[in-house]
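User: For documentation purposes, I need each entry recorded in a consistent format: the amino acid sequence on its own, followed directly by the corresponding structure tokens. There are two entries in this batch. Please keep commentary to a minimum and don't merge the entries.

Assistant: Recorded as requested. Entry 1:
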Amino acid sequence: MEKKTAVIPQSEVERQLAFCDRIAERTAQWEQTPLAAVITYGCQQNEADSERLRGYLARMGYGFTEDLEQARLILINTCAIREHAEQRALGNVGALVHGKRRHPEQLICLCGCMVQQPGMAEKIRQSYRHVDLVFGPQALWRFPEMVWERLRSRGRTFQVEDDPGSIAEGIPVVRQDGIKAWVSIMYGCNNFCSYCIVPYVRGRERSRKPEDILAEIRELVKDGYRDITLLGQNVNSYGKDLAEPMDFAALLEAANAIPGDFLLRFMTSHPKDATHRLFETMARCEKVAPVLHLPFQAGNDRILKAMNRRHTREEYLAKIRDLKSLIPDIVLTSDIIVGFPGETTEEFEDTLKVLEEVRFDALFTFIFSPRAGTPAARMEDPMPRSEKLANFNRLTALQDRISEEKHAAYVGKTVRCLLDLTSEDGAWPLTGRTPGNRLVRIQGDAAAAGQFRNVKITGANKWSLFGELT
């Protein structure tokens, strides 16, 4: 039986907003408007979390800066998916000690998935004494209260208790992009892939109510947003914990019915829950972009079982064939882990065979990075790093060839693109995205940014397309 999601009472959210207002009264008395620097590592969900933290900070009276020397408050939102991201974040946190010595009043906050890992809070407590406030993703909604308590005292605050998670609505949001927006539809994960730390640091799956999601999308469309991405660790599991269950396909249909000229995207999907009904809904709904990110991670069934992926190679390929029969021009992307503990080069060859059959448009590829606390971190891993790197290079070379071939097929076509950014490159003053999210560098008037326009594709390489406004 599915556990009902805990919802933070609106009175508690209002209490947090009251803390914001009390902080704003204090900051208004300072000589200058205080500035906050918000640094984000990791996935789109972290970006969405940072937008809510910026919302709180703006209500507290803070402006924003990228200059750490000018920042009265520095907030680093961390990632724990791979060791490299963790070490990079810790390195940057360590470097802040010098600024803290120059500006003792500076408030340094550390949050996100990394700090929620077992033992990490104690490591920060002992080795990074200049950090004032540490909290995990489940405590984000209480950020104003934590800041208020820190401003009133000289103590340090740590909020990293093990928590299955909850839903808090009504937190203000400050978005950095006026064209594209992230909308979290659910949080947490129940899959427990053997290599993944996410369920341990983000809690169990919990879904927002559809009426709250749809109201947020309507407001975004009203404000002129044109590219809206629905976020979840596994969006295909959406709604199972709601009092009145609603599946993800039904949510997509409801979002598609909202009036306006905009595109809907979503990520991430898990193959075990990606259904024919979802694919049929994507094909039928004109605002749902023809793109799917569907991680398969490895092409060998023994490795998939060791990963606890709960799908086989053939089940994955059957879903791709079904999807392509409904949406022939679908843009497909995926994640692959090279060198999972115990994987042989012969087993890795099965992954290359999947690439040849599916012909993904792009891949996110990684060499296995053990995460303490996950089952995979305790598995024997006899393959030397050099062999893993050789396999990784073979994988990327194959995907580069496929990407270049697929991009070359766009040349001569005219594609409706969302012009999302201006560029300082005089030859290509605009960038845009196809409905399938392919990057296009465009010749044309930079004033067209933010519009849907037809673009004739004139060139391509393995990374992007090139075109001109028609």
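Entry 2:
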Amino acid sequence: MERFSNHPIGKALYEHCKDYKDMDNLKCEEIEGFGIKCEDFILTDVSFWGKDTHQKAIGIGTKEKLMGVFYLEDAISPYAHDFIKSLKQRNKQIILCSGDTENNVKYIANTLGIENYYASMSPVDKSNLIKQLKSENRIVCMVGDGINDAKAMALADVGIAVSKALDAAKVSTDIVISSGGLEKIVYLLNLTDKFMKNVKQNLFWAFGYNAVMIPFAAGLFSKYGLYVEPEFAGLLMGFSSVSVVLNAMRLSKA
């Protein structure tokens, strides 16, 4: 049922069960926000069968009968702490939004020092949260990896899909991290800071340079014997553009 899935949980389930014999020729469909249905068989959260668990648990069975349960545990990215620290240093509000259970999401939030979190969120819930934040005139960046995140990422001002994201999530975003994960987003944030610093430097030097040199080129100080020949003024103008380009090229080493 999960052998063609690109979702991290789907891949994990497939890797766990790949040594078992396949049930060939099943007609399967992925149901957004629910799971997978292959003819009479369903793969979804155990709550579908009325089961309540403190762990994230995926069940497999028919509508009438739960046949098996897979208990899941999130592995926190080794770069997650640096990622959260980097955002806090930039005075960004961080919100953890997940379809996972309350206990799991709370544990992850507490471990990473995230104060605001939402659990058991459907794709619609995530989209509504983005709409609510934007209605409060906030600039929202959404980082996600699954089909349940696609709509929310499309609604955000900036959507970032990590490298293992589903294709549906990737096409809904502004930025796709082609390799790696959170560590590349930290790099992206640092590069953005350097880019803005570079832009401000270029504007300062370009305006300052022109403010000083244009009066000389216009001959305002010629009566004092201070002037610039037209051909030399053109050369200086070209030097201004070259200095801006050279400064911008330093970003390629970032």
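Summary note for entry 2:
The two ends are 44 Å apart (CA to CA).
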